Amino acid sequence: MKTQEGKRLYIGVDVGASRTKAVVMDAHKNLLGREVRPSGTDFGEASRRCLANALHMAGADESHIARTVSTGYGRKNVAYSDDTRTEIGCHAKGCYFYFPKAITIIDIGGQDNKIIKLDEAGRRLGFKMNRKCAAGTGAFLEEMSPRLDIPLEDMDRLARQSEDMVKLGSFCTVFSATEVLQNIRQGRKVADIVKGLFFSVIKRVSEMDSLSENVVMTGGVVAHNPFLVRMMEEIIGRSILVPDYPQLTGAVGAALYAIENSS
Amino acid sequence: MSEEKKVIIRRLNAAKDLGKFMADYYYELDAASKSGKQKIAWCTSVGPAEILRGMGYLIYFPETHSAMLGSTRMATDLIPKANAMGYSPEICSYLTADIGAFLENVTPLANIFKGIESIPRPDVLVYNTNQCRDVQDWFNWYAKRFNVPVVGIETYRNVPEVTPVHITSISRQMENIVQPLEDVAGRKLDMDEFKNAVALSRECSNLWDKCLAAAAARPSPLTFFDGTTLMGPAVVGRGTQKAIDVYQLLLEELNERVAAGEGAIEDERYRLYWDGMPVWGRLSMHSKLFAGLQANVIASTYCSSWIFSALDAGNPFESMARAYTELFIVRSDAYKEKYIQDKLAFFQCDGIIYHDAKTCPNNTNCRYGMAQRLEKTTGIPSLTIHGDLNDLRLLSDEQTKTNVEAFIEQLEENGKAA
Ligand code: SF4
After folding, report:
1. Distance of residue B409 Cα from the nearest chain A Cα, in angstroms
2. Best residue in B403, B404, B408 to probe A by mutation, most A CBs within 10 Å?
3. Which atom of ligand 1 is nearest to the CA of B95?
């Protein structure tokens, strides 16, 4: 696509299994526009609408786009993308942009979670994704919210109210649900159960790998439930870095690749 | 870099000879099973085949059949039949797929080879636990079912160094199975035939070793995914001249490729090592996935498991005991680490893929920190993919794809490209 009026914009689109994210950046890596939408059943449509809204926010249109890189589960479904990168690479790039040092990234997404390790130069040392299991992902919380009859949006607030957290021992979502039912039967407070669910998420993730000195947390689940970060800080005994828009780091990384590869 | 593009994987002409070899092999077994004219022994893939050849047995290998159940993707529907009988979904999916197929009276042999309706009937079953205990349970089940004898060799596990004590024990066990096998065969072990079989096995092993070593060339003329099929004769044809003939042709072709600088894939940029079982139902998908990223999986622990350099016709029992105890799978982690380290260096690999196969802990080497230790000593990065040899319910193609793509991106960004 041709650019107009000297405005060259770079698009990063992250089509996740549950949410699609798009960001618009200029060549100086300023974040000018952003959007998050449910991915739904038509990834192509979700990514088009995401782009339109992000461009609108940036006060630009498609003619300004210099290059687009897509990432995430549906990265191949983005018709207007010039290149694709994996979400591992994009999260790494996005996080290092905000925190240029040796970091361990914990990303908790809707369907999967990842741990990515970078050295001080931003080189990837290794990564891990969750195995074929929803433990420690957003899907686990989504599964539990109707069982407790509380909306997902209320979970963070409720978890903060807990004074006597329920401990859940199981790896498996189905077994955890049984444990939750047992706690309901025993009359435990919903807030205590929700905090137990949160604890289970971060426990499962933190068990995936060792964590280095600087830990960054990202992902939609983190964006909507910042209390998870507080709980993780308690577990590891040090503060955790969180970028401005933790749900957007993948898309930011994709846009950064677009900037790099266009030169 | 991960844009869809046409993937070029160059097939080997020798694959045709191999196809003929396998067809002849199964037709001969089928004829013997139908006529009853020649005795048939079922044997584990690293069992004492040479002794059986010395008594004129034809040999059928259930594991090869299970691998076919996997590669034809029949296994996943058959495994639950065995699960329902009490064989856990967590145990060897070769065992469960094979028993499931038997219960359902189906076999890929019938689909591939016209005129073959079923697997050959055993007169006796012979196992060696050098690979795992599952084979013992597997073979015992069939022994009851067919009402035929089963004999076995119990091998040591986690062996750091093969000592005379191991050799004495295993060779004695091998000698002890001769009598019951003779009783079934209705004839004596012919020492000349036996020694000849050992000599032929050794030659086959040497040739196979050379074929695999040819992959050290840049670009590599061979892929691991081809290797898993090409190794058929090294498994089922041990102790026969025909297997040697196939590998002579294969080696010639590989050498020609090396001389011509022709790689198995187009534009080989990354050279990888594979540890663990193949995912049989995804061989083609995986080979395209890697080739599409300009990565060639050039060497593996798995394909190298049929190299038996210790075999010596002059000393058949003891050398067999050594050869079948020296195997990677029988050895201690320290040995295994050194072994993989040497392979990484020999093949000049940029990375290593561990397949954590859910139902085969025996061929899965990344569960006790080896991946991390090797990464530290060699500086060569690794990726673990979770899956299974036969049970496709245990893998996520999307996750594998993302993991592999991300791993190659990592190699690219860290400048490890050749
Ligand atoms: S080594 Fe693994 S795949 Fe082979 S028979 Fe044993 S458990 Fe099954």
Report:
1. 7
2. B403
3. 8
pTM for this entry: 0.91
Render pLDDT for B348-394 as a digit per residue (tens, 0 to 9). Answer: 999 999 999 999 999 999 999 999 999 999 999 999 999 999 999 99
pLDDT tens per residue, range A54-101: 999 999 999 999 999 999 999 999 999 999 999 999 999 999 999 999
- Check B414 against A124: CB less than 8 A apart: yes
Q: Which of A83, A123, A132 sits opposite B386 (nearest CB)?
A: A132
The full 3-state SS of chain B, as one line of letters, equals CCCCCCCCECCCCHHHHHHHHHHHHHHHHHHHHHHCCCCEEEECCCCCHHHHHCCCCEEECHHHHHHHHHHCCCHHHHHHHHHHCCCCCCCCHHHHHHHHHHHHCCCHHHHHCCCCCCCCCCCEEEEECCCCCHHHHHHHHHHHHHCCCEEEECCCCCECCCCHHHHHHHHHHHHHCHHHHHHHHCCCCCHHHHHHHHHHHHHHHHHHHHHHHHHHCCCCCCCHHHHHHHCHHHHHCCCCHHHHHHHHHHHHHHHHHHHHCCCCECCCCEEEEEECCCCHHHHHHHHHHHHHCCEEEEEECCHHHHCCCCCCCCCHHHHHHHHHHCCHHHECHHHHHHHHHHHHHHHCCCEEEEEEECCCHHHCCCCCCHHHHHHHHHCCCEEEEEECCCCHHHCCHHHHHHHHHHHHHHHHHCCCCC
